[in-house]
Amino acid sequence: MPKRALPLAQKIYSGFESYIRSFKIYTRLAPQYFRERNWVMMQLNHRQRLRLYKDLLFQLVAEFNEMLGEDAANREIWKLIRKEYQSMIADRPDVELAETFFNSVIRKAFPGMSIDEELMYVMEGYQICKWRENSHLVHTYPSQMGLEPIIRKILDDFDPGVPFLNKEEDVQFLIKSVREVILTRYNPGPETKTEILKPVFYRNKAAYLIGRTYVGHKWMPFIIPLMHGEKGVFVDTLIFDRNIMSHLFSFTRSYFMVDAEIPSQIVGFLSSVISHKKTHELYNAIGFNKHGKTLFYRDYLYHLQSSTDQFVVAPGVKGMVMTVFTLPSFDVVFKLIKDHFEPPKNMTRQEVREKYKLVSLHDRVGRMADTHEFEYFHIPLDRVSPELMKELRNTANSLLDIQNNQLIIKHLYTERKMRPLNLYLEGCTKEKGWDVVEDYGRAILQLAQANIFPGDMMTKNFGLTRQNRVIFYDYDEIEFLTDMNFRVKPKPETYEQIYASEPWYDIAKNDVFPEDFKRWMIGRPDLKDHFLDYHQKLFDPLYWQKIQTKIRNKELLHAFPYPEEIRFRPQEKV
């Protein structure tokens, strides 16, 4: 049996090497597409990289099962395979990703298997993401260079490979920002220095430089976004605000393309810049969402050990397609697709899963929540409240199994917990409500610009983040905007038409009448009038058609992940 374990371990290791090699190929295309302003290929490249893991995994597991044969359920051979595999990956700079890949193989090769610490990297595994000082992964600029030479050197080191729009103006913008934000509060000393990660973070039409300055006996983080417009590359702004930086790495945004030679070190540096982001969120942000899922699950297990509360039905209006529950002390909701959908829903479980897959591959533009998909998810039975168990039995019984005092859910999604928008609007002040309903409309329009039509746009399908940003999280009715037909509602002319109980005109499945949105989008009268006045274009079919035309003409509509008012050149188009 030991002789069999080695080639099996080598097979998994070869599969992991293939994944990493392909992942890097896709990632290293990002600077080229930025240089060429090839935004269509930038997005396609992003989607192809996202598909890579599962595509390679399924092929590998099929070959692996053929080699393993009847020993697929043999614990002893799996122990030996892990031992051999561990020796192969021990010195890799991405050892933690290799561990997660092994977990994925064993879970796919042995479906329904319990989480097993002896066979997998569950609680034990590489978790050191502490930044090493004087790393070769950063450019370091001592204060003795002087502010202006430092900024010039930063832009020279970036070198996009194409001309800047106005590099001298960029330098002056950056100097002005540093003086206003940092030098008015702190005096640089001999210990002051600035560090910027050498790997550049690419997403959509932007490139981001991530850095920090040691001044006033602490690190001041910052981010420099650069755009490539029709006239050249330019610095768009300089971000010091930690909330804005956090939003750049939000779970509502697509993953960055960044050449992470040592992923744990990139995450370590990011942790020093965006200190309140969890490690699994940062791995997600740089494209290693499968390892992010592993770390999330570890957090979940740690939390179970340190808490005593019970899982309960999530607050809010119950959905027609999903059953949603939560653990009050844990910042996550769990979503199951119901066994049966009440009318007017007429889709299948597989169709719902396809909608969630669409979102996972699409640009979320800061307005759709990322999810992790789990199979055979275990919850201690004594932590499930009676009310929740009743709800699960009534709505998703086919997904449930009970073994060894564990509730096993065959398929679910996890998602960041948010405040349901409808509940927030019921109790907020008018002033706060105005701000939120404005953002609610912006969220819908930004989704439209990313070619997403939410379908059911009622407030119960949206949530609020900690920063009161409106996020869409109900995906069962989403469609591509370009597949919809936005129409002006015909005006009745005859007595029969005026008093008809049903529409007297033909309505196709994909027909949308934006003027009807006014009837149900906001309920509170003191908020509704403001919303209707602020977002008049939402109800204009012509406005939606114009967005469709731009998308069909391959125009990527960039959604800025920071307020446009902080841009150095707000008039500059990208």
Low-confidence stretches: none
Spatial separation of the terminal alpha carbons:
60 Å
Number of strands: 21
Continuous helix count: 19
**What amount of the residues lies in strands?**
15-25%
Q: Which geometry do the CA atoms define?
A: globular
- Helix/sheet category: alpha+beta
Rg, rounded, reads: 26 Å
Helix content: 40-55%
Largest sheet: 6 strands, antiparallel
- Average pLDDT number: 92
InterPro entries: AceK_kinase, AceK_regulatory, Isocitrate_DH_AceK
Domain Isocitrate dehydrogenase kinase/phosphatase (AceK) kinase: 309-564
Pfam family, one: AceK_regulatory
Protein name: Bifunctional isocitrate dehydrogenase kinase/phosphatase
Concise synopsis of the structure shown:
This protein has 574 residues and is of the alpha+beta class. Helices cover 43% and strands 16% of the residues. The termini are far apart.
